[in-house]
Every structure is written in structure tokens, then in C-alpha cells.
Amino acid sequence: MSIKTAAFAAAVSVVAVTAAQADIKMAFIDPLSGPFGPSGEAAYTSFILEAEKINAAGGVNGEMIEVTGYDNKINPKESLVQFQKAIDDGARYIFQGNGSSVAAALIEAVNKHNKRNPGDEVVFFNYAAVTPAFTNEACSFYHFRFDAHVDMKMAAITDYIKGQEGIKKVYLIGQDYVFGQAVAAAAESMIKEKRPDIEIVGNELHPLGKVKDFTPYIQKIISSGADAVITGNWGADMQLLMKAAAESGSDIPYLTFYGGSKGAVAALADGAIDRLYQVTEAITNLETSDEQNALVEEYKERFPDYDYYYHRAFNAMEMFVAAAEEAGSVDPIPVAKALEGLSIEHAYGTATMRAEDHQIQQPLFISTVSDDVKYGVDNIDLGWTLVDAGTISMESAEQPTTCEMERPE
Amino acid sequence: MSDTTQTYENLAPSAGTKFRQRTLPILIFAAILFAIPMTGPSRTFYTIAHQMGINIVFALSYNMILGKGGLLSFGHAVYFGLGGYLAVHAMNWIEAGTGLWGAFPVFFLPLVGFAGGALAGAIIGWPSCRKAGTTFAMISLGVAELIFAAAFMFDSFFGGEQGISGDRMNGIEMFNLSLGPIDEVYWFIAFWTVVGVIGMWAFTRTPLGKLSEATRDNAQRVQFIGYNPQRVRYLVFIIAGGFAGLAGGMAAVNYEIFTPDALSLVPSGLVLIMAYVGGITYFVGPIFGAILLTYMQSMLSDFTEAWLLYLGVLFIAIVMFAPRGIAGIVFGFLDGVRGDNPGRYLGRWILRLVGILLMLMGLIVLVEISVRWSNGYGEVFEPFGLHLDITSVLSWVLVILPAAAGVWLTRYASQEEDGK
Amino acid sequence: METIVFGLLNGVSYGLLLFMLSSGLTLIFSMMGVLNFAHAAFYMLGAYFAFTITGSSSFWIALFIAPVLVGLIGAVVERYGLRKVHANGHVAELLFTFGLAYLIEEVVKIVYGKTAVDYRVPDLLNFAAFEIYGATFPAYRIFVIFIAVAMLVGLWFLLKRTRAGLIIQAALTHPHMVGHLGHNVPFIFMMVFGIGCALAGLAGVMAGNIFVTDPAMAVQMGPIVFVVVVVGGIGSLEGAFVASLLIGLLQNFAVGINASFAELFGFLGLTEMSEVGSITVSSLAPVLPFLLLVLILIFRPQGLMGEQEL
């Protein structure tokens, strides 16, 4: 157990007592230092908080959960080292989400490990790596994805565009790697299908994390006469794009996957209102139970640097608990089998784990930034609010799969 | 030096010295590697040990050009990565059984890596080895950035961000090793680590190895005696690239995946730090550096999130106070103990060690308190049941007192040395 | 036409920013032969200091105080770090700054946190200067151009027209002679290093709010600064100026070109389908500086306007 986790545990005395008798060990393998550290930590804190809640409520079948962080520095190779360490420490459940390259490496590693070490299986809960292949051609029985993948998110965005008569020209900009290419391909085919009259006036891929000044890209977007921009950018690429957009003074709306990534709203400030859109499985400002609002507030109070963003982390843990209770066991294979087809009611809707490909199915929400919200983000008054006709039902977001899954006995 | 009768025969080491200085260390090294599995190590231990083996070969190959050749490179990971990529592709060809590859055992994939690294060295080295010094360093930086960027453009070879992966459990089994379970991979890594170390050590004994050191020290004189320094640098560069590729081939089999990250400036910087921290003037220096840094990278991040800060401090401390690295400290200590006045030397040495440990203690307390304060989660650094808050007096006493005492002790030790 | 105008405007403003950042490095490099790897880290410090000072007083005070603070830190680093390492040769000096860059980044993370801070353009300059082809050009960027040009003139005047500048130039080539004439050469070195770092700090103050002020900003800017210095030529401020503008324009124009290799080199039989053919010029933009670096080093090692080879 790392000092860090120990310190987390010490902060809440309940866990300090229960951690010692933890029965279910879960490994969180994501960047916890370096430039991507904040992305990993925002999710890690979510898992920690949910584990505390579950343990306080009596645990899973009476057994306590312990989530331990393993810093992979967002490097696939280092992830495999940490994966071995996690298995050695007794972890049978792995969480990871930052970076499709890491997820791909981990899926391979989990498959190989399970093949080579029967009886010692490990299950991989992917909470944010969204390249569609993981639940299509590269699907695995030991991999579950708790986030909507690229095609599903794009389906939601294009459904929204379908109703926007004003949009005639769309510009696509993204990062030049598997994920960005998948976003561009999905956008092109879905727009053609849903709104054949829309012209795609630009399809730009820029290198990942290398561009410092997006102004020339923004100029290109403006001179193309686009009515809307679709982007899957995340992290610094998202923040810098928004900064350049704010400077240019244009008012083209941005339909994004990760407009909620830390700092993007702050970069645009008031310019984000009705201009920055994102698609997510949850928005903290939706109508929901008092219990959920209390959770959002507790999260912000405990971790003031971050906002309640990874609702899917909470979903993943809740589904794990439900599956373990249904299976009457906390062993990986029974839990994995119970997860197939499982449905839960979470704070903002229903989530179902599709059995054929282990891809979560849930309603998605298109939201934009507003100054009239209950919960702001980036420690300013602006926050996300649902747009008109922004609720995309589970059925509309659902995508077919090509997965041919091999299941163990 | 009045002994004018000295001949070359007298200068040459005796057979016993030869054995003690050349064969024995390698035998001990091999014996340690052989003994490790007897202790029934954990999976984590194996994983770290494998990475250490890979990094040992990689750091030694880097030192061929930095320590022995005097060429500072910021792009050595390019050869590691290209060799590794070729090996992963070869692994997939073995799986497909195309042509002759069906008969090639996975066990010998590092040779493919060697070929790949050497080939890349031969192509890239041609324009870049014409100059030494800063020109070479800058070209290596530019080339590294170019190749790294190109890795994201040519998906068929580099596989984009996802990289290329393979399965090592294919083809012909060698030495009864299926290479599936981690303890079987250990023998593979151990074998190639020993081969790499012996190979590179043997290289330093060849005329080319000697010429490389001569070129580092004075390229003009090398030219006078009839050798072309550019060609010497170029040949050494190719071989160093080859050994980097060998390490890449080992990594390919160990991880069964290669991603473009392996070509970036980050591993290039890390191998530079490894070699330098270990000590570039000694052959074994990079081995120490590789072991220490691999351990820090994978294990220290468990204990503290400020591990990069400690790494930076370690590196700067080495550059400033021990430019010959860990190996320099170790061998300096051995020489001192064997010297005229071992008791006095040992005393000073212990004084200094205590001083350094005290400074380190002050630093650790300071850093750990600050990190927790900076995170703002309300955690507090609590070593040995102490409650060290940022506002408590005890914390600051524990920072300042040991640090001050440490500085005084080390200064005192140095002064005594000077005044001897 | 739009592409050309925008390319020019953005290229010049980005190029001048690069120049502010690299002029200090050129100064340090030409004088002390040290490729300061921590230079971009000082740039980052400038941005963070400016953020802190802006928070407690105003941007205009930060504009003066932050570079001075960075310069002081630089001077201390030179006096107690670099000077000690100097005896071990240039490689040791270079590695010292390499480690320093790590260290500064980690300390910044502890003090300011791992995520970006909200460092903004001052309200006084937060408006659109003019509008062409539907896009506005922010006034702050014009201010950046103004500051950069003022800095160039100031530096040029200092080095070529003042007594202090003459001594610095002399110490560059003949340190021993200058020492014998009674000047304190180590002090001159410390001053030059301090001023170089202060210039990087100034660039940080100016650029931190255009881009993002976070702990990764140094790593992002680091390599490209070397490109500017090497391409421009050792010890040549004019060269650094030309190289900055060249790189700024090159990158911005390349982004504007949509053509792929297949379209450009179609006569060679390259098709869109092939991997090389499908690469577009605009996706190459961020890589171009490094290509330029390698080509310059191979074919013109003294750089565009430098007198001595590296």
C-alpha cells in the first residue's frame, strides 16, 4: 500500500480501520504524476470516494473494497509493469481509462495473463478509453467498458445536429491518432447519413499534444465558413483550442467530447456560454436525488482541485457491487458473468452492460455552459446545463457490434 | 620514476590479475543472476528485474557513445525503439510462419533487434557523425523529434498511438522455455543481459574500442596517426545502435508490445540520466545507474508522488558533487579503504555519509510536508507516528535542524580532508 | 489571400514570441557555451510569477517585477550551481541545466499545483484590435509584437552601443584578456546568465496568458527554442530574430496548406491511397522546425547568420 493511499485512508478514519481487513483489492492504473497526472487523479479520487461509501454501507457481500493507485505515467510499457505489481499485491480488478494506447496494451496483457495463469484471472474495468475497437473486433470477455465509445458519442452529437437547421457546414478537427481518426470517421459517416445536406468543410488532424498555438487552425475554421466545429480533443489540446477560439472572437459553436476536461471552460470564460457543448453520461446540474447532490458537494469539498466529472467511475463501482451480490461471490469470473446484461438505476438514468460486447448502454446528454447553474466547474460560476432536446435516449445512442466473444467455461 | 629497466612485459597484468579484474566480475554477475530464482521471488520482483536487465544493456550501449566515444546524444531511444519495433514485427512473422521466419525461435529475437538498431544507426549516423560535440547533440535532438513525429504518420510500421503487439509463445522453443510464465522469461532476459554485457565489454578491448576512446580525447591526434575520426565515430555509433536495438529486442519479448513512446525524448533523457548517475567513466557505471533508476521509477512512485523531484535532486547532486557517478563513489571508497590510512578515511567517509543522510532527511520532511499541503486534501505527513503539519514548529525543526547539521558535517569532513 | 494575411499576422506574432524566448538563450549560449536546458523552465517561472503578482497587484507591475525575479534566480543558479560545475566541462554544465529543468518543474507543481492556473490577459488589452475576413486580431498580440521589438532594439543598443555591451562582447571571445584588464569576468557571466533568464521570464509573462500556464508549458516549449538558436547561428541575435520569424511563418503557413503529398508529388506516382501520399502538409507543421534544424546542421553548421560553427 502506498503512502498516498495510506494518507487517504488516514484522512477518513472509517477506512483506516476497514482497509486493514480489505478483502477485495482493486488496482487503479493511470497517470498519477506528470502532465496527465490531473486527469488520472480526478478519476482516482472518484473511485476512492465511492469505495469509502460502499465500505461504510457494509461492503460487498460483507467484504471490504480497497482501491490502490498505480502510477503508469500514461506509458503502455510502464502500465504493464504496474499491472504485474497490482496482480502481485492481490488485485483481481483493474481500473484504467486515460489513453486508448494504454487500454489496448492492458487488454492484451489481461488476455495473455488469463490464458497463461488459469484460476488467477483478472478483469479489466475500462472507465474512459473510448476507441470503438475495444468492444468490437478487439473485444474480450475480461474487458468491460463503462463509458460510451466514440461512435455512441458521435451518434448523440449528430442526433443533436439533426435538429439544428442553422447548421449547414461542419468543420472537423482532432488529434492525429487512433482515437482522433475514429472520431473523424464516425462524424463523416453519421453526418452523411443523418443530414446529407450538411457540407463537411474541413477535416483536420493535428499532432497529439504538439501544437502550442491553435490560432492558425482557428483562422482556417473561420475562413471555411463553418457553422459548427466537432472535436474529440482532450487535455491540453482541448484547452489550447478553446483559448485560441476565445481570442479570435468568432462565435462558432464547438461540439465536443471532452469540453468538460479541466480548464476548457475557464479558458473560454463567458465566451463558453452557448458556444461550448459536450456529450456526457451525466451532468451535475440535472434534476436528481438529494443524495446525489450531497455526493457532488462532498466530492468538491474533499477534492477542491477537481469537479465531480467521472460519474462513470461511480457507475462502475455500483455495477460491480450489484454483480457481486447477484453472483454471491467476489471472484472475477462469476462477477464478470453476472455483469453481462446487468442493469442499474443510477442518479441520472439507467445503465445496462450489454452482454454481447461488454459495452455499457445508457442515455447521453448534450450540455452547454451557462452562468445560471447550481454547480460551477473550474472553480468559477460557469457550469454545464442540459440543452433543449439534449437528452439522447439509450436506443438512439446504441451502436451495433462486430464482437465475437469467447467466454470461459 | 628512476626504474628505467621496466619493459612492456612488466606492465602487462599477470594472469591472476587478469582473472580477478576481467573474468571474475562477470562470473559473479552471472552467479547472482543464476541465484536469483532460487530465492523464489515475487512477480513484481521479476517484472522489475526484467526491466533492469533491459535498461542495463540499453544504458551500457548509450555509454559506448557518451562515456567511451564522447558523443552526447539526446536521441538514443530511437535505436532502442527501431530495433524493438523490428523485433515485434519479427515476432508476428514468426506467429504467421511466413517463409523462413517459421523456423526462427523467439528466443533469438534480440539478434533481430540488434540488426534493426545497427541499420538505423548506419542510416542516421551517416550525416550526424561528421561532427562531435554540440552539433552532434543537436542533430540527435532534431532526429529524435522527427522520428517520433514520423512514428505517428506511418501506422503500418509503428501502429500509431496503440503501437504494435505480438505474442511470444510461438515458433520453436529453445532450451525448453515456452516463454509464457514470467519465470521462464527471466532466463531469456538473464541470458541476453549477460551476452550484452560481455559483448560490450569485449568491444572496449578491440582496437576500434580503443580508437573510440582516443577519438573522444583528441580527434586531431587520431587523425595524425592515420585514422579517420569520422569513420571511427560512425562505426562506434552503428555498434552502439545495434546494442540499443538488442535491448529493444529484449523489451519486445518481455512486454510483447512497442509503442511510439519508446522512441520519444523521454526514454532518451532517462538513459542519459541512468548512464551519468551511474558514472560514465567506468564500464560498470551505467549498470549501477540502470539498476537504481529502474528501481526508483517503478517503486519510488509507490512511496511518494514527488519521486521526480527526488530524481532531479539526485541527478543535480551527482552532476555537482560526484561527476564520476555512483561507480566513482564506490571505487573511490574501495581505493580509500585500501589506501595509507584506512581508519582515518573511513571516519571521514562515515562523517560525510551521516551528513548526507541528515540533509536527505531534512529534504524528505520538507518535500513530503509540502506535497501534502499542496494537494490540499487535508492529509498530513505522519512518519513513525509523528504528526507533521505545515504549521507545526516540530516540522520546521525537523527540516532545518538535520539539513543544517548535515551541511556542517559534510563541510567539516571536506575541510579535514583538505587540511590533511 | 486570407490565408496569406492570417499566416503573416500569426506567423509574425508567434515568431516574435519565440524570439523573446530564445534571445536570452542565444546570449547565454554564445557567451558561456552552455546550452541551457532549463531555459524553458525559466520561461515557465516567469508566467507563474506573473500570475501571482497579477493576483495581488496588477499585470503592469508583474511585467516588470516577474522578469527581475526570474533573473535573480538565474543569477543565483549561475553563481552557486553552474560555476561549480563549470570545471567539469560543457557536458556537465549541460546536464546540470537538464536536471535543473526537472527540479524547477517539480517545485512549480508543489507550489502551484499540477493543473493550469488561471492567468489572464489584462482587461485593458482584452479587446479586438481590428477585424479582417471575419476574424478579429486581439490587441494583446499587437502588444506582444511591440514589446518584442522594443526588446530587440534595447538588447541591440545594450550590446553594440554601450560600454557594458562592449565588455560583454569582449568577454565572449577573450575572457582572459578582459580579466587581465581588470574586469570581473565571473561577475559578467553571472549577469549575462541572469539577464538571459530574465528575458525568458519576460517571454513567460507575455506568453503565459496567450497559451496555458501549467507545469507542462516548459516541456512543450523546450526543444523548439534550441531550434531557433541553432538555426539562427551561435551568438547572433540577428540570426535568432530571423530564425524565430522564419519558424513562426513556416509553421503558420504550413497549417494553412491543405494539400497532401499525393497532390504535390503526384507526378512521381504517389497516390492518396499510399501511406506517404495521404500525409498532408498541414499535419507536418509542428515537425517542420526539427526538419529545418537537421538540414541546417548538416548543410550549414554555422547557422543562418552565425560566424562560428557549433
What can you tell me about this protein's structure?
- The complex is a heterotrimer of chains A (409), B (420) and C (310).
- Helices cover 40% and strands 20% of the residues of chain A.
- Chain A has 14 helices and 15 strands.
- Chain A has helices at 3-11, 13-19, 37-56, 76-88, 100-116, 150-162, 178-194, 215-223, 236-248, 264-268, 290-302, 311-327, 332-339, 394-397; strands spanning 24-30, 65-71, 93-96, 123-126, 143-145, 169-175, 199-206, 228-231, 254-256, 276-280, 343-346, 349-353, 360-361, 364-370, 383-392.
- In chain A, helix 10 (264-268) links the parallel strand 9 (254-256) and strand 10 (276-280).
- Chain A is globular, with a radius of gyration of 21 Å.
- Mean pLDDT of chain A is 84; it is low at 1-20.
- The longest helix of chain B is centred in the C-terminal third of the chain and has 34 residues, at 342-375.
- Chain B has 420 residues and is mainly α.
- Chain B has 17 helices and 2 strands.
- In chain B, helix 4 (77-96) crosses helix 11.
- Chain B has a two-stranded antiparallel sheet.
- With 310 residues, chain C is mostly helical.
- Chain C has a two-stranded antiparallel ribbon with strand order 1-2.
- The two termini of chain C are 40 Å apart.
- The mean pLDDT of chain C is 81.
- At the A-B interface, helix 1, helix 4, helix 5 and helix 7 of A face helix 3 and helix 13 of B.
Output mean pLDDT of chain C.
Answer: 81
- Counting DSSP E segments of at least 2 residues, the number of strands of chain C comes to 2
Beginning-to-end CA distance, first to last residue of chain C:
40 Å
| N-to-C order of helices and strands of chain B | HHHHHHHEHHHHEHHHHHH
**Class computed from helices, strands and strand pairing of chain B:** mainly alpha
Shape of chain C: globular
Head-to-tail CA distance between termini of chain B: 25 Å
The tally of helices of chain B reads: 17
Report the largest inter-chain contact: A-B, 47 and 44 residues
Radius of gyration of chain C: 21 Å
Content of β-strand of chain C? under 5%
Spatial sequence of strands, sheet with the most strands of chain C: 1-2
Query: Overall 3D geometry of chain B?
Result: globular
